[in-house]
UniProtKB/TrEMBL annotation:
Pfam assignment, any one: Aldose_epim
GO terms, molecular function: carbohydrate binding; glucose-6-phosphate 1-epimerase activity
Protein name as annotated: glucose-6-phosphate 1-epimerase
Keywords: Isomerase
GO CC annotations, alphabetized: cytoplasm
Catalysed transformations (reactions): alpha-D-glucose 6-phosphate = beta-D-glucose 6-phosphate
Organism the protein comes from: Eragrostis curvula (weeping love grass)
GO BP term (any one): carbohydrate metabolic process
Enzyme nomenclature, EC number: 5.1.3.15
Top enzyme category: isomerase
Domain of life: Eukaryota
Amino acid sequence: EVTKDWNGADQVAIRSPRGASVRVSLQGGQVVSWRNDRGEELLFTSSKAIFKPLKAVRGGIPVCFPQFGNCGTLEQHGFARNKTWIVDDEAPPLSNGDNNNKASVDLLLKPSDDDLKCWPHCFELRLRVSLSMDGDLSLISRVRNVNGKPFSFSFAYHTYLSVSDISEVRIEGLETLDYLDNLSQRERFTEQGDAITFESEVDRVYVGSPGVIAVLDHEKKRTFIIRKEGLPDIVVWNPWEKKSKTMSDFGDDEYKQMLCVNAAAVERAITLKPGEEWTGKLELSAVPSTNCSDH
Ligand code: TA6
């Protein structure tokens, strides 16, 4: 059902028969809540989030398009997350029937005249947010070059996972990968560790990552499974204490309860010729962790 959010923008809620739910705001096309069938909130939103028009809320899943990060001419993470989207009732069907018995909503962002001034490309960005019977959340973005000259973009689903204690969280699936370290001018390193654990600020782009990543929250005995297609990179970010204190819309200690694991296309920009379309899929599951031995 459609409700109004903090500044009057529409928020669409999707529910699964077993009680799971997702809420997505037309402000930024941003998923702002994902709850399991026990009503537990699985995404982090800062208690100091600033709810004002055309500013992404600190949490949920902001859509970073057409630029990830601040290496470009646009504002940090591009303009899509700061724009008002519309519900798209005439969304063309997904090619491979990717909508089997899922509750979903289709959103659309097209450039305004202002947008075309700062990014002169005729694009359509369609986002389908779906909830499966099992409560899995999927986001499918399709970027189409309507009829302009070729353009390139980078993209990320900036996913704020809610965790119980960051020092008890580890990521599996990124071992041995190269990463670009945002904390040292995107210098390239190779991940040596087995699972990735957290003791300080981390801001890395793991490149060429596999299709499945696991984020294990030991205390909550919960594992997030991240599946992706068309998004070769994974951005891992936790601001830790010092950086947290510099963010006005983020509590000083909130770094302990969140971890960003963003399915992304960052290292290599995506280029579309006129008429071409790109699809980026993210599927999130939250499953009880098998009682892995405490080692
Ligand atoms: O996801 C990593 C990152 O690029 C960090 O460098 C940090 O800036 C974060 O995104 C949040 O960016 P934002 O513009 O939402 O404050």
